[in-house]
Design goal:
By secondary structure, the chain is an alpha/beta fold. Helices cover 32% and strands 26% of the residues. Bound molecules: 1-O-phosphono-alpha-D-glucopyranose.
Length: 278
C-alpha cells in the first residue's frame, strides 16, 4: 500500500514577508504547531509514514523540526514543560524523514519530479502544507483519498467547489461523475480566468499520484507562468489512463494567504486549543 508522502516545501512565502525572510513559511505556527506538522500528522494518519521533503535554500528549520533538539530536551526533561513536546515526539516516533533539494523553483511539477529519488516506483501522496485541511468528524483528507485509491488504483486529486472570484487561484477540473463526490477527470486547467474555467471544482493541495507521473512530468513543457505544472501532467495522465477528482469531507484553509491563515488560527484556537485538544 501507499507508504510515502512528498511535501514540496521549497517555496518562498512572499505573501508573509517579512516574517518569511529567514524562516520557512511552512514553519509559521497555527496556534502552537507549525503548518507543516499538521500536514505530516495528516499523512501519518493515512498510513503514509515515509515523509519526503523537497526543500530548498533557507529551509533547514523544517528538517530540524523533525529531529531531536538535544539541548532543549535535556533542559526541560522531567519538568511540566515536557508535555509541549508530546505531539512532535509522537510524529517523530511514527514517521521517517528524507530530504532532497530543489535547486531552482520551476513549478510544482518540477518539485514533484525532484522528489522522484525519494519515491521510486510506487504510488505516493503529496501534501501542499499551505492548504490546512481539517476533517473533524471524518478521517483526514489523505486517509479518505487512500481509501479511494485502494478501490480505483489511479491518481486522485482533492477538489472543492470555490466561488467564481476565487477560480483563477487554482487548478480547475472538469469530469464525469462516477459516484457522489467522485469524478473521472476529462479536463484540467491551471489557474484559468473564471470565464474560461471548465467548472468551479478547484484542486486543493492533496494528491495521490501513481509513479508513471514522473515520466509524464519529464515530457510536460512549462505552462502557466512558465512553470512545469503538475496540473498539465495530470491532464496528460487523465487522457491516457485515469485520474479521479474527489470532493473531500472537511474544511480547507488557505494558509498561503494572510486571511486564510488568520481564519485557520481562530478555528484551531477555538475548536482544539481551548478544548485542550491541541
Ligand atoms: C498549486 C497547484 C494548483 C492547486 C493549488 C492548491 O498552486 O498548482 O493547481 O489548485 O496548489 O492550493 P499554488 O497555490 O501552489 O500556486
Amino acid at each position: 500500500m501507499i507508504k510515502k508522502c512528498l511535501f514540496p516545501v521549497a517555496g518562498y512565502g512572499t505573501r508573509f514577508l517579512p516574517a518569511t525572510k529567514s524562516m520557512p513559511k511552512e514553519m509559521l505556527p497555527v496556534v502552537n504547531k507549525p503548518l507543516v506538522q499538521y500536514g505530516v500528522e495528516e499523512a501519518i494518519e493515512a498510513g503514509l509514514t515515509e515523509i519526503g521533503l523537497v526543500t530548498g535554500r533557507g529551509k533547514r528549520a523544517i528538517a530540524d523540526h523533525f529531529d531531536v533538539s538535544y539541548e532543549l530536551e535535556h533542559q526541560i526533561a522531567g519538568t511540566s514543560k515536557e508535555q509541549f513536546l508530546d505531539s512532535i515526539r509522537q510524529v517523530m516516533s511514527q514517521a521517517t524523514f528524507s530530504m532532497t533539494r530543489q535547486q531552482e523553483m520551476r513549478g510544482l511539477g518540477d518539485a514533484i519530479l525532484n522528489g522522484r529519488r525519494l519515491i521510486g516506483d510506487e504510488a505516493f501522496g503529496v501534501v501542499l502544507s499551505d492548504d490546512l485541511c481539517i476533517a473533524e468528524d471524518h478521517d483526514g483528507v489523505l486517509a479518505q483519498m487512500v481509501a479511494l485509491y485502494k478501490q480505483f488504483r489511479c491518481s486522485i486529486v482533492a477538489i472543492q467547489e470555490v466561488p467564481e472570484d476565487q477560480i483563477h487561484k487554482f487548478g480547475v477540473i472538469a469530469g464525469e461523475k462516477l459516484k457522489d463526490g467522485i469524478f473521472q477527470v476529462t479536463d484540467m486547467v491551471e489557474k484559468p480566468p473564471a470565464d474560461q474555467a471548465p467548472s468551479n471544482l478547484a484542486i486543493i493541495g492533496r494528491y495521490i499520484l501513481t509513479p508513471d507521473i514522473f515520466e509524464i512530468i519529464e515530457n510536460t513543457p512549462p505552462g502557466k507562468n512558465g512553470e512545469v505544472q503538475l496540473t498539465d501532467a495530470l491532464l496528460a495522465q487523465a487522457k491516457s489512463g485515469c485520474v479521479l477528482a474527489y470532493k473531500f469531507k472537511g474544511t480547507r484553509f488557505d494558509c498561503g494567504s494572510v486571511d486564510g491563515f488568520v481564519e485557520a488560527t481562530n478555528y484551531v484556537y477555538n475548536n482544539f486549543y481551548l478544548k485542550g485538544k491541541a
